User: What shape does this take?
Amino acid sequence: MTEKTEDYEAGNGMHHHESMPRLTATHTNAEGAPLSRQVTVTMSNEQYERLFFQPSAPRKGDLAKRFGSTPTANPTLLGLICFLIPYTSTVLILCQFQGAVPPTSLIGIGADYYFLGTIGMNIAGIAEFILGNSTFDAKNPPTASENLHRGQSSPTTDVYFVPFIALPFAVFVIYGSHWGSLAYNQDPIHNVTAAFEEYGGANGAAYNSSQGFHNITMCMVSFMIMIGTLRTNLPLTALFFGLVMLFAFIAAADLRVPSATSAADLAYIEKLLQVAGGFGFIGLVAGWYLVIIEVCEAVAIPCPLPIFDLSTKVFPPKDKKTN
Assistant: This one.
């Protein structure tokens, strides 16, 4: 069990730092003498990690104040679902289920890429930015209360770590823009491959190298974000692991296309795409697992699914203070 505490001054909503934060309410008796009481809340790491899914801490900054100190909606759920809908279809196509032929079948879900992936995720990203879920300012670290709600693994005031709250804005905008890039590139209206006709068209090295380089870059981005999720929870880490491998194998398939000269080569490329879909399926399952937890937390339905907290298992804090 982990003890999580918070210091709060009643009446003005101000938070203060102490060596060990605690929840304190100030009252007066009949003679006007000040009275105080201390309440310590003890919860398991599993319960503590669930607080991350519905952050409700007071926000800082002018934009946050303009929209209210307590958010009325959690844009994380919107961004996650808008990512998973086109992602699920993409993975199933790569796995070649029900006669799907990658990458041709991906053209059929271009609308999902445009509206759900691009517009939906960027709206969620902007909302995360407004709520302050974009960066971590070391000069103005979060208060004890904000650490409690933002998923910090240590409640002490000298160890500040925000495992995922600094990522939603960047993640939603980056991957939302990726869906838009993919949709535009594959949209027959734009006929992107026409510019490569003298270099072999869609099967030439000029075109496929550009696609391969894009997927290599997205693989690198996904890997870096995956590193950042190692102290959050297992499903989130599994989601980005699946993305890393998916982009890696798609890049391998792209770079293999120009040298394909036989049916065996084409079969090998299809196998690479199928393996990419297989790894992507790991992220698919993990992502929808998180959605179930998010939905239950949003409407206060008891959810028996474990979070698989990693905050105390991967790079545990060295400076952890206890009462």
